[in-house]
């Protein structure tokens, strides 16, 4: 629980320091290598493998809910 | 020459402004993703189980504000895992999954809805989900809320009388934040609530039995009928001084069954020339055991709840991954705006700390070596933008 709280605090601190990045300064961010989910078909499948082999689930960026197929 | 220079400079400014606008639209969260078709072959091979099959995902925008998507996915399973070898016999089965989804864009808001149906001979699952995303602060911040609800029907081959239900709810909050012109981060928090028959109807626990030849016997596992879990994760991607990116993920998880888990991952993505993209990653996962897990119970019906599922034991997993993407020249596939061929390979090593290898019949009960296995996962897919 303490570790969970620390993660949440880290997140709050992170969101508090939001420097202004102007639209014309987002060239790097627009590059495909900066995407959290460049190929959804591939990442969805790997999340399925993780959920089938691990007890942990959720908060991994995947949308929807499990298929209950593990 | 001066007017020409001014004209060139003005043209460059216009081109730069248009390029910036185009990039901005990519970076902004409130723009729908482009039309796309993906065709994938997936394969998992490890621990005596082979699971492979196709997956096809198509996505189409209708105007500028609505998108629809559909996914067809198949798992063809052939399993002779340690659980199967210990208490049953090798089996084959097939699971088919259909998903449809839609997105609606309004100003800086995207509303998504989806439905998934999964069907195999002894398990049916249906899940519906909705989410809403809102961009703030000059599109530097995107906040998403999502919920999903699923109903499963659990059956048992060879026992037509057996039918149980599971209800699954999930609640997600995601905050993504552009921190600098080279750094983007995201925080996810998700709670899940499962109710119903959460066992595997085939899996059994073992207990010491002095009357058995091998010193132990098996009985059916018994799980609680509720499971609540919370998970929080932090992810960040950094654009390196040259054109490459470094990604770091961390997730912490805990649930009402007493399991605590965390995993972290580092991923390096490196484009090479105009056509190639290489990816290298390492992921580590570890978890503690469920309160009611035991590899060997002291006697029959030793507890109210009993599990011997290795996924509920304490273990660690290491995963390395390599990936290659090739951007196919447009002249080869001129009907598409862009086409890629992708091959990703992941290698897993699972090391269990309280799940023993009962196939070692030489050892005394409870003194068998701890089980471990490795697995290879292949994703080979074609992506087409149109």
TrEMBL record, chain A:
Q: Which residues form the DUF4266 domain?
A: 21-70
Q: Name one Pfam family in it.
A: DUF4266
User: Which InterPro entries does the UniProt entry name for this protein?
Assistant: DUF4266
Q: What is this protein called?
A: DUF4266 domain-containing protein
